[in-house]
TrEMBL record:
Its cofactor is Zn(2+). Substrate binds at R98, N100. Residues 15-251 form the SMP-30/Gluconolactonase/LRE-like region domain. GO terms for molecular function: calcium ion binding; gluconolactonase activity. Belongs to the SMP-30/CGR1 family. GO terms for biological process: L-ascorbic acid biosynthetic process. Transmembrane segments: none annotated. The active site is at D193. A divalent metal cation binds at E16, N146, D193. It comes from Amycolatopsis taiwanensis. This is Gluconolactonase. PANTHER family: REGUCALCIN. Keywords: Metal-binding, Zinc. The keyword Metal-binding applies.
Length: 282
């Protein structure tokens, strides 16, 4: 039985959005409220930090290694090193709303969803950035837009609006349709946050407040639990050269000071299955 391994110190205030891409030097993830992208050196274990904006909500690679980012109120493009960041225009002007989590679809478009800093019900939306720089509103009346992932065949999208305590599925043919609930998370298990899909189509869902990642079949059957030593588990992604390592991000937000010394660390778990290569932009 594999055990959870702590990979870094508690380097993030609010770690989120891990991404493994073979064209990058190592795993990248965000310290969201700090506005930083973190990168793990796979050999030394050292963590480097790049400031990209007031908020760093999510990032994904182009196939050539450049990056697309979600920042506080919109999107940005960056070079491969993240040394040059070019913000696009603001998608909205309300300073009480920020981007939160996102990912790319099989057609190379980048989605990110928003939320109110105050977590106001229905204040968020899900947006799509196309490679030509145009932005489309895909969903409205969202509260805390979170995990977004696709099935191995690309025909189903999975989406989390955290307070619903659901993972919803959509049919995907270039557009999202046929929304239905496929996973319902009981209150005592925490709130679903970020997620990823493995090569067999199972959903790995991080549980905010639940101290765990749960694995579900596409029809919602719970098949595995990964317990962590901290409560605020935010997101997960498969990585490593064989895509057989599940990297898990955590947060110090909402944790009593001094009570969980590992909160904000990056963790790793080997579940015995492989993930899918990250979907790229462009």
């Amino acid at each position: 039985m594999s055990t959870v391994e702590q990979v870094t110190d508690a380097v993030a205030v609010h770690g989120e959005g891990p991404v493994w891409f073979a064209g990058w030097p190592g795993l990248r993830w965000v310290d969201l409220i700090a506005g930083d992208v973190l990168e793990l050196d796979p050999v030394t274990g050292a963590v480097t930090r790049r400031h990209v904006g007031t908020v760093a909500a999510a990032l994904r690679p182009y196939s050539d290694g450049r990056a697309v980012l979600a920042v506080e109120r919109g999107f940005a493009f960056a070079d491969a090193s993240l040394g040059e960041v070019r913000p696009l225009g603001e998608v909205w002007s309300d300073p009480g709303i920020r981007m939160n989590d996102g990912g790319c679809d099989p057609d190379g478009r980048f989605y990110c969803g928003s939320m109110a800093y105050a977590e106001t019900p229905g204040a968020g939306s899900l947006y799509r950035l196309d490679p030509d720089g145009s932005v489309t509103t895909v969903l409205t009346a969202v509260t805390i837009s979170n995990g977004l992932a696709w099935s191995p065949d690309g025909g189903t999208a999975y989406y989390i609006d955290s307070p619903t305590r659901r993972v919803d599925a959509f049919d995907y043919d270039g557009e999202l349709s046929g929304r239905r609930a496929v996973v319902r998370v009981p209150e005592e298990a925490g709130m679903p946050d970020g997620m990823t899909v493995d090569a067999d189509g199972r959903l790995w869902v991080a549980l905010w407040g639940g101290g765990a990642v749960h694995c579900y079949t596409p029809d919602g059957k719970l098949t595995d639990r990964v317990e962590l030593p901290v409560t605020q588990v935010t997101a997960c992604a498969f990585g490593g050269p064989e895509l057989d390592e599940l990297y898990i991000t955590t947060s110090r937000q909402g944790v009593e000071e001094g009570s969980q010394h590992q909160a904000g660390a990056l963790f790793r778990y080997r579940p015995g299955v492989r993930g899918l290569p990250v979907l790229t932009f462009g």
